[in-house]
Amino acid sequence: MTQSTMTSNTVTPATRGAQRVDPAAAVARTTSHSSLQETWVQVLAMAWRALKKMRRKPEQFFDVLVQPLLFTAMFAFIFGGAISGSVSDYLPILIPGILAQTALTVCMATGVQLREDMDKGVFDRFKSLPIARIAPLAGPMIADLIRYGIASVLTLVTGLLIGYRPGGGVLGCVLGVALTVIAGWSLAWIFTWLGTMARSAQSVQGISMMIMFPLTFLSNAFVPAQTLPGWLEAFVKVNPVSHVVSAVRDLFNDGAVTAEVGWAVIGCAVVVAIFAPLAVRSYSRKM
Amino acid sequence: MADLSAVRAGSLVKNFGDFRAVDGVDLDVRQGEIFGVLGPNGAGKTTTLRMLATLLPIDGGHAEIFGVDVRREPHRIRQLVGVTGQYASVDEDLTARENLRLFARLQGLASVRAKTVAGDLLERFGLQEAADRPLSQFSGGMRRRLDLASSLITRPPLIFLDEPTTGLDPRTRGQMWDTIRELVTDGSTILLTTQYLDEADQLADRVAVIDRGRKVAEDTPDALKTQVGDSTLQLRLAEGSDTALAADVVRRLLREEPVLTPESGRMNIPLPDPNRAADVLIGLREAGLGISSVSVAKPTLDEVFLALTGHGADEPQTEAAR
Known about the structure:
Distance between the termini of chain A: 34 Å
Family (chain B): Belongs to the ABC transporter superfamily. Drug exporter-1 (DrugE1) (TC 3.A.1.105) family.
Low-confidence stretches of chain A: 1-17
Mean pLDDT of chain B: 86
Pfam family, one (chain B): ABC_tran
Number of domains of chain A: 1
Number of strands of chain A: 0
InterPro entries (chain B): AAA+_ATPase, ABC_transporter-like_ATP-bd, ABC_transporter-like_CS, ABC_transporter_ATP-binding, DrrA, P-loop_NTPase
Oligomer: heterodimer
Helix content of chain B: 25-40%
Largest sheet of chain B: 6 strands, mixed
Shape of chain B: elongated
CATH architecture of the largest domain in chain B: 3-Layer(aba) Sandwich
GO molecular function, one term (chain B): ATP hydrolysis activity
Mean pLDDT of chain A: 86
Number of domains of chain B: 2
Strand content of chain A: under 5%
Distance between the termini of chain B: 40 Å
Membrane topology (chain B): Peripheral membrane protein
């Protein structure tokens, strides 16, 4: 240690915590894993980071602002007459459908952004820190709740503007939006898992599109399932998106908490139970 | 506990496909020292460090940090080691202060404490003025300082520095060296990688030289340099064809083997003592051999390498897979 001690005497002595670093004490303090409470704090810290980034890059909100406006109006006026006879008759079917579609689009962005984020140097630091592996994944998803909220409310408001009058009243609408947000958050785990698996953000985008289109269009989001051929109807009926759409329809239009709501919630729970562990495992492996 | 090593690694192995990036490296870093891992690009320095930091799975061998097994208890290791990467691992979209607060919160510091620690570190690393500016306006040196500050939030007993000054200008480099020296006075142990012999020389108490995934030497910087002579006489002969004659003169006078460079008429001669340079020059004049340029230089990593491995540091490393 000859050289370094000699030179360090000439360096301005550090003016900070006088006590020296004690390796033995540090080893004694270590824990074998993050506790539940620590994990929660870490997830919130990561959510805080995601919120800061959102504030700095408002262009991220483009999809949640434009899509609800554009798609609601476009689909209502194009398909309204053909499917339901008139625009106003179609809106009770369409609005919950658009809600689900918009939520899925936001999910897709979650996966793409995670992939982009993971390529950055800061993820090296996240990996080197003693934090639960789920925190970097779950944090941004909590921040995304805001995006789901904005997208859902905007869709509903657009619907109201072009003549939608939900029979479920304010409470039904609030519950419907809440269910959409929960469903969006749950399905986002599929895309988060993709984000941890894929090689690049572009490939996440590509794969996500291939998942998103069948999930939304092969559901009852835009057309009644009965009008479809039998084999397609069978798929539409097990598609979790269909259950979410039906549940939101029941809440919006009738203010009724039906069995569909239960199925939608169970479906979301199953998706999270499968894909959250898969995502964490794949993220931990990519060290 | 005082006699424990900070890092004890044996026969570390890392394969990337068919390529064996790290091939049986042993390291023993003592508590409180600065240990340097010296080697050219692609030698396996960073890979070794990343394995020890739990950033890469260890394919073979074993490693302990303060007696904790790296493979079995990665979460404990992460609490003991602060890692500063080759490419600043800080969040480009946040400010310096936000970065430090985030890392502090992630490591369990309460909100108020996180703020205080962030403020202290910004001050200590001379970043207060830039604290709330976007990182895109930061210079390379500022980023490195922020990166190092981020590794010190919990005052870890062991700090990994991966090429801490690569790409920095000489002044910033000197400041970084001072900062690193201060850390050990706190009782921290430092494991750093570098491509520069002078950096290892300036900072490290002991140095391991890594080449093609293997450790080829381990010693104090002084001892390493003595192996190649304290300094080097670099000559360029007026006539390239005189090279063999000049080499004979050198061998006779110094009993040293001159190192011929690929350029015609150029040779590097290890000098046990800088004063012997005059002997060589006089010897060459007496033999009637003209010189077009001459200089005396400190030994470079390349020369240490040549002396230790028989090949230069800048030779392609790809054929190392064997």
